[in-house]
Structure formats: C-alpha cells, structure tokens
Amino acid sequence: MIDLRVMIVEDDEFLLKKIGKILSREISHIYTFKNPLEAINKVIEIKPDIIISDINMPEMNGVDMYKKLKKNNLDIPIILASAFSEPEYFIEAIKLKVKKFIVKPIDIEDLVDELRQFEKELLNEREALKQERMLMMQSKMAAMGEMLTNIAHQWKQPLNTISICTSNIKLEKEFGKIIDEDNTLDNMIENIMNSIQYMDTTLNDFQSYLKPNKLESSFYIKDTLEKVEKLIFSQMRIYKIEEIKDIEDFHLCNYQNELIQVLINIKKNAIDELVKQDKERLIKISTRKVNNEFIITVHDNAGGIPPEYIHKIFQPYFTTKKETGTGIGLYMSRQIVENHLQGKLTVCNEEFNHNGNTHYGAKFEIHIESIYED
Ligand SMILES: Nc1ncnc2c1ncn2[C@@H]1O[C@H](COP(=O)(O)OP(=O)(O)OP(=O)(O)O)[C@@H](O)[C@H]1O
Ligand SMILES: [Mg+2]
C-alpha cells in the first residue's frame, strides 16, 4: 500500500468515481472532489501530499486552482491531466512548475507508478528535514555550550579572587588582627566559601551537560538522576514540587549527557504543567530492571495529556505553550532515545499512589537495553 494522502479533482463524476475506486486499492488515503472550489476549501483540513486534477472544469480550470492554492501559500505538488486539445494551458502550467502532466484517458498503472515514486521522494525529503532539524538543535546546544565555556572562563578568575580574599580574612582573624567574639564573621566566611564552591560546581555541571558525549561511557543511573536533580533543583524549589523517588540503582553503558538532556526535557514539561495547579505538586521518578531492559519512569500528577493530542506530542513543533514553547523538546528527546541511546520513549496517562492518596498524570518511560549485567 502506498502511504499517501491524494486529492483528486475531476468534474466528470463517472470518471472521478472510477479513478477514486481503483486508486484506493493501492493508496492509503483518497479524497475525491467534483468541484475545484470545494477542493480548495478542504485543502487545509485534508492536508494532501499531492493533488491530481483535471485541467478543463466548468467552475475553475485546474491551472487556476493551482494558482489560487499557491497564492494562499499552499504549495502542494500537483499532477494535471488533460486531453491534447488544451495546449493553451500548458505554457502557464509549465511556468507554475506543476509536478507532471498526464494525458487523458489516464493510464492508471502509470499513475500508480508515478505516485509510488513520489512517496519515495517524500519520505527522503522528510528524513532529510528531520536530520536538518536535529543538526540545528545540536548546533544550538553546541553554541550554548561554547557560550557557557566563555562565561565560565570569565567567572572562574573573580570566583577565585573572592575565595582568596575570604581565606585572607579568615587568616587575619586567626592571627588575632580581627576581633570576632561571637563567630559571626566565621559563619559569614563559611557561607561565602560554600556559595563559591556551589557556583563553581554548577558551572562545571552545566558545561559538561551541554557537551554531547562522543563516546559511550559506563555510569550509574542513580548518579545520573542526581545530576538531573541538581540541574533543575531551583525550579523544583521555587514551584514547591516534591520529588518522590523509587530508585533501583543500575549500571549502564551509554551516552550519559544525552540521557540527562532527555530527562531534563521530560521533567521540565512536568513542571510546566504542575505549576498550573494549586494542589500538591508531585513528580515520581522510578527505575527498575526488567530482564535485560532498564526502565526509567517520570510520572507527574498534573492531570495527564488530553487524549485529543497525546499522539501528537512527539511531533516536531507541537506545543500547547503558545508564547513559551517551541514544541521541539519531546521530538528531540525521542530522536535522542531512539537514535543515540538505542532505546524507546513512551507515554501514557496513569494513576499512582502516594501517602494513601491516588494521583493522576502523564507517565513517560525510557526503555534502554544494556549489554552490562549487574
Ligand atoms: N507531563 C505532561 N503533562 C501534560 N502535558 C504534557 C506533558 N509533557 C508534555 N506535554 C504536552 O506536550 C507538548 C509538547 O511538549 P514538548 O516538550 O515537545 O514541547 P513544549 O514543552 O511545548 O516546548 P519546548 O520545545 O520548549 O519543550 C506540550 O506543549 C504539552 O502540551
Ligand atoms: Mg518541553
């Protein structure tokens, strides 16, 4: 079966039915229209991959229909069918770059071959587009990593200076040059030192997370989840989100930074939904090993993904966050899980229990096979 959405426009009802019937044996989606104006109105809803249209029709000729679609930015490939007696349209149609002309009476076998070829081209084109988007995202991440390296470089020196100055104050106090009877200064110094330490590790953490792993490495899942926690810790605290953990630690050989990136995307989505609700906000993280498969689950209690669009959330640019979202997060996460981590990323809405209460929300699962046996 050829997987295409094909719109056929033909004013001769008998012919239209006949072509529609024969083509629907070979092609997955066929939409037939007798009137080109009706066809134009339905294009946005149907989203055809290709249109096959007669040229000579009473309401509007095929070339004008194509012109009108193009004018509305609906650049859908079109195959025009005509009898040889209509040469006046040819020049115009060639100028408009129609995909192909076929001569009436239509040879259905040729047409099917044509559509099969078109399906291949379309798949290749889509694959190339996906790759391009992936590359774009990767280069964006790389640029961000580079920017962070610059910031880190600029900040390391002043952090170091602050740290030295603070140590000096401590020394002065130890030599008795500064009086600090109730140890207030000591406490302050300790606070400053801790903050410096924290800023320094945060810089390193972000930097290493933004660098894509070139090689697989061996790491523990518990440690990975702790890294993720650290990276979005502030958002969890600001929005008062409680994290419930049910972790079975295991050893993986894979790309750790990529896994971190996916987990951050999933957790950030959960946070985005959780902040909308006033009741208790929960994210439950669990890991388990089933046979030779490792499963990492991120389950929230934000009410779940509406069934009308749950099947769309992994598509590029699908977002319900008009101003703030790009709709790339989950698309990229699935690409990473399937193509880099050689795993699977699934979603469903489910209940879970916590402290005697039942909660409901989206549950994302990452399934990864590992060659390592613990
Ligand atoms: N845990 C969740 N609960 C409910 N809906 C969710 C959840 N996770 C994702 N979604 C839905 O899936 C959509 C797509 O998510 P995705 O991460 O791909 O894009 P986004 O978060 O909208 O934008 P961004 O590209 O900035 O991540 C979201 O807009 C949201 O509607
Ligand atoms: Mg997102």
Summarize the structure.
It is built from 10 helices and 12 strands. The protein is an alpha/beta fold.
Structure overview:
With 374 residues, the protein is α/β, with parallel strands linked by helices. The chain has three domains: 2-106, 3-Layer(aba) Sandwich (Rossmann fold), CATH 3.40.50; 134-210; 217-369, 2-Layer Sandwich (Heat Shock Protein 90). Helix content is 49%, strand content 23%. The protein is built from ten helices and twelve strands. The chain has helices at residues 13-26, 36-46, 62-71, 88-95, 108-174, 184-210, 221-231, 233-238, 256-274, 329-340, and strands at residues 2-9, 27-33, 50-54, 78-82, 100-103, 217-220, 241-246, 251-254, 281-290, 293-300, 344-354, 357-369. The strands form three sheets. A five-stranded parallel sheet has the order 2-1-3-4-5, with helices on both faces. The protein has a five-stranded mixed sheet with strand order 7-9-10-12-11. It has a two-stranded antiparallel ribbon with strand order 6-8. β11 (344-354) and β12 (357-369) form a beta hairpin. The structure holds adenosine-5'-triphosphate (ATP) and magnesium ion. The site of adenosine-5'-triphosphate has 20 residues, from α9 and α10.
